[in-house]
């Protein structure tokens, strides 16, 4: 786990205020409780890099998934299952769901958009099971527009004059007699920032403070409210109309915070003012952390009206830092976010072997990754190459892996042009980012929860594999006590697994950390310790995380109806060709007659593949299983050299000649090819068995020392390749399907260096190439190659990624095809 850096510091107090002692029990307690909270509820963050921002029905969304530990942003390898779903924003319904396998915090996948999908606004979400313990706000969200290739683009209607303006005092409050800064944000009906001007006006119509937007509808002004006075804010909209707004609530007594994060390269300066009675014995506190890593904590008395805290930047991680001020009653009273800049980003370069290419010519790119000091970086990256004439840049400074993890994931609400604040060529980026953080605050926790003496256990656990759960009950609905369970899992490729387990006293059970792919059939068999199978079993269905939208249309991508004409035309051509190819394949398959030989029940049974021909076989039928209580009852007396003793659940079996100096040696038991305990065999009803194979001597030698006592191989009817056990209605048995890790398709890109019949088709793909798993070597280099399409266009290449310690890199470049 990441170890927080803790500093209990003395405050620097203006006007010569008294310095506090170093030791402070409450402050030590606050730091200890905060650290315990972070260790109990560690944060995870997920991010998806998409090949492009919009799609048509019938196309595929390609994505790369990154999961990091919230404090350090190091690649997270604890959770290994990431849920990615597509939500219809009109109905708030999940329409597609994928379970992505993560390895070292990295995975990838795709979503095929069905032709029947409705066009409109959708949202991609990514979250782990552990992240479900917290607000949905902490999931990764990204808006995606889905179009119909055979329909014209429609724009969402909105009123350009419908502007919402919000005013937010720095730190949280305006206080009588204390000067403070008030940030504001003006957005239109589509959530985009708009420019405004305005003023604070007194009750006598005097203008006390004027203001105007600085960037994307945001700005701030300074203002000191006086006791007994009333104020209003007047805003002039772009259309010239004036609108009145009430001033934010003014408190009679309290604290204000002014933060200077721009003028001093070594310290963040925090000025705290209050209008409470001067009291040298009363104390205020300040607590500073970056994503849960404590960087600074200090106290000062209320002996003076103004206190200055200098917070060393060296103690703070890169990204969003939270500053909280506690009053004399140890209650949080003011908060402010600041951004700490570190030169930890990965510098990426994309070099092509040519400046321009011909249609269908091979393109070779070299990616170079270095740190800020020029040292090579080994990292994992994803690359998308798109046709710039079809994939329009409708979202300038769009979300990237860097702007999400370092900014958007730690503030509340949508951020317009988030990557704008990471543009090194923008001299105003730091100042405008500081204004943004005055307008958007957020906490991943509640201070009341942090300060509790005990923390409640998290209801959702960390998933390191596919899991499912359920419950066993008696037919009278009473608790069954502990029940023995046998699980048979059959994957699509016919891979089989047998697991054993038992329920809790309540009948509940959980199976976790499975490595199963695609849709997997699960058979669960339950039997009590007394052999009772008159039980009902229920598997809990998987429920995606709940969806909650608070505003429509949620910053949609706006298109001019004519802008996407080329994309829609080419997409319709491509999909029409694909439909024709599918139809031809289906017709060809219908004409094929398959001739096959009759299968050999022994040689062609995969369960017998290990040992082939058995020494003896007992086939189970209605005659020899009638009245039998266990498999041993059927075997007894039917196989030469096999001796069975005991009764009931205490049966012993010995194959003649199987002994050592310690006495008799029991055989190895196999259930449909899987080694199991004898207890598991005893509980299987004879009516469920197809046959039992006995392996003696040399036939059992293939199992080594395990087969020293011979082998008893039970072949169940359900385990047979021809048995449809999914329709079995036996007592104490249930058959269900679960979704394992979603299978990963490889992105198809034609290779024009070899002529094949399919190459006669026109090629105007919107996404020319998608490579989600690019690994740079020790020299920080990686190479990729693909072929240009038929389009004479500019091709935009975008690379995103990170290394294992949390340094991130983003780079875009273009080349021409003519």
Short structural description:
The chain contains nine helices and 48 strands. The protein has 818 residues and is mainly beta.
Structural description of this entry:
Belongs to the TonB-dependent receptor family. One of its GO terms (biological process) is siderophore transmembrane transport. Residues 616-711 form the TonB-dependent receptor plug domain. InterPro entries: Plug_dom, Plug_dom_sf, TonB-dep_rcpt-like. Keywords: Cell outer membrane, Membrane, Signal, Transmembrane, Transmembrane beta strand, Transport. Mean pLDDT is 88; it is low at 1-23. The protein is mainly β and 818 residues long. The strands form 14 sheets. It has a five-stranded mixed β-sheet with strand order 2-8-7-4-5, with no helix packed on it. A five-stranded mixed β-sheet has the order 26-48-47-28-45, with no helix packed on it. Among the domains are: 174-253, Immunoglobulin-like (Sandwich), CATH 2.60.40.1930; 466-514 and 519-546; 608-718, Beta Complex (Ferric Hydroxamate Uptake Protein, Chain A, domain 1). The chain has nine helices and 48 strands. The chain is globular, with a radius of gyration of 34 Å. The longest helix is centred in the C-terminal third of the chain and has 27 residues, at 565-591.
How would you describe this structure in keywords?
single chain; Immunoglobulin-like; Ferric Hydroxamate Uptake Protein, Chain A, domain 1; five-stranded mixed β-sheet; globular; disordered N terminus; transmembrane; Plug_dom; membrane
């Amino acid at each position: 786990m990441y170890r927080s850096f803790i500093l209990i510091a003395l405050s620097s107090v203006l006007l010569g205020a008294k310095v506090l002692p170093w030791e402070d029990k409450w402050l030590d307690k606050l730091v200890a409780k905060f650290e315990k909270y972070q260790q109990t509820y560690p944060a995870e963050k997920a991010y998806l890099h998409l090949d492009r921002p919009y799609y048509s029905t019938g196309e595929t969304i390609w994505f790369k998934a990154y999961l990091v530990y919230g404090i350090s942003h190091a690649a997270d390898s604890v959770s290994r299952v990431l849920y990615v779903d597509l939500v219809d924003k009109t109905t708030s319904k999940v329409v597609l769901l994928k379970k992505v396998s993560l390895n070292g915090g990295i995975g990838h996948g795709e979503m095929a958009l069905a032709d029947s999908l409705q066009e409109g606004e959708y949202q991609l979400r990514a979250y782990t099971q552990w992240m479900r313990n917290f607000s949905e706000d902490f999931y990764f969200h990204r808006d995606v527009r889905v179009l119909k290739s055979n329909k014209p683009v429609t724009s969402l209607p909105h009123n350009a004059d419908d502007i919402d303006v919000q005013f937010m005092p720095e730190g949280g409050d305006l206080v009588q007699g204390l000067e403070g800064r008030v940030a504001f944000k003006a957005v239109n009906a589509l959530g985009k920032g708009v420019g405004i001007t305005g003023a604070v006006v007194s009750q006598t119509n005097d203008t006390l403070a004027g203001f105007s937007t600085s960037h994307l509808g945001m700005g701030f002004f300074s203002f000191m409210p006086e006791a007994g006075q009333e104020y209003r804010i007047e805003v002039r909209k772009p259309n010239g109309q004036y609108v009145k707004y009430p001033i934010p609530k003014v408190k009679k007594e309290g604290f204000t915070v002014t933060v200077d994060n721009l003028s001093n390269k070594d310290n963040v300066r925090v000025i705290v003012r209050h209008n409470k009675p001067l009291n040298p014995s009363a104390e205020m506190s300040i607590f500073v952390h970056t994503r849960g890593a404590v960087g600074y904590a200090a106290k000062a008395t209320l002996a003076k009206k103004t206190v200055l805290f200098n917070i060393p930047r060296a103690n703070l991680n890169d990204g969003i830092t939270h500053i909280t001020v506690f009053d004399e009653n140890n209650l949080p009273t003011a908060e402010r976010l600041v951004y700490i800049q570190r030169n930890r980003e990965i510098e990426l370069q994309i070099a092509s072997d040519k400046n321009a290419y011909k249609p269908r010519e091979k393109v070779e790119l070299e990616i170079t990754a270095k740190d800020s000091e020029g040292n090579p970086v080994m990292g994992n990256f994803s690359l998308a190459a798109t046709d710039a004439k079809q994939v329009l840049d409708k979202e300038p400074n769009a979300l990237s892996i860097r702007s999400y993890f370092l900014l958007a994931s730690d503030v509340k609400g949508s951020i317009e042009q988030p990557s704008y604040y990471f543009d090194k060529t923008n001299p105003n980026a730091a100042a405008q980012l500081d204004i943004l953080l005055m307008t958007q605050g957020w906490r991943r926790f509640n201070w009341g929860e942090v300060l509790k003496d005990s923390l409640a256990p998290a209801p959702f656990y960390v998933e390191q594999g596919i899991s499912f759960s359920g419950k066993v009950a008696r037919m009278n609905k009473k608790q069954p006590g502990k029940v023995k369970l046998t699980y048979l899992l059959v994957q699509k490729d016919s891979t089989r697994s047998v697991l054993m387990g038992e329920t809790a006293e309540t009948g509940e059970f959980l199976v976790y950390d499975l490595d199963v792919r695609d849709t997997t059939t699960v058979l669960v068999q339950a039997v009590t310790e007394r052999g009772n199978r008159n039980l009902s079993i229920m598997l809990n269905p998987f429920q995606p995380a709940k969806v909650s939208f608070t505003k429509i249309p949620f910053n949609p991508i706006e298109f001019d109806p004519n802008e996407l004409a080329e994309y829609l035309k080419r997409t319709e051509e491509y999909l029409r060709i694909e439909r024709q190819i599918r139809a031809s394949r289906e017709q060809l398959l219908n004409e094929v007659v398959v001739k096959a030989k009759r299968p050999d029940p022994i040689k062609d049974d995969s369960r017998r593949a290990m040992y082939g021909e058995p020494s003896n076989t007992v086939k189970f039928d209605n005659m020899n299983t009638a009245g039998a209580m266990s498999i041993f009852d059927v075997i007894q007396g039917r196989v030469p050299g096999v001796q069975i003793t005991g009764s009931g659940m205490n049966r012993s079996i010995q194959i003649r000649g199987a002994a050592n100096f310690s006495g008799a040696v029991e055989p190895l038991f196999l259930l449909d090819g899987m080694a199991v305990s004898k207890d598991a065999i005893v509980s299987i009803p004879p009516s469920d068995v197809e046959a039992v194979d006995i392996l003696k001597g040399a036939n059992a030698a293939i199992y080594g020392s395990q087969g020293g006592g011979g082998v008893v191989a039970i072949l169940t009817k359900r385990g047979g390749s021809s048995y449809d056990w999914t329709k079995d209605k036996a007592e104490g048995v249930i058959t269900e399907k679960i979704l394992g890790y979603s299978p990963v398709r490889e992105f198809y890109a034609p290779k024009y260096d070899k002529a094949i019949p399919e190459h006669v088709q026109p090629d105007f793909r919107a996404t020319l190439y998608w490579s989600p798993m690019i690994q740079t070597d020790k020299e920080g280099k990686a190479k990729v190659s693909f072929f240009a399409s038929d389009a004479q266009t500019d091709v935009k290449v975008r690379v995103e990624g990170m290394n294992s310690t949390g340094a991130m890199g983003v780079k875009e470049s273009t080349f021409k095809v003519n």
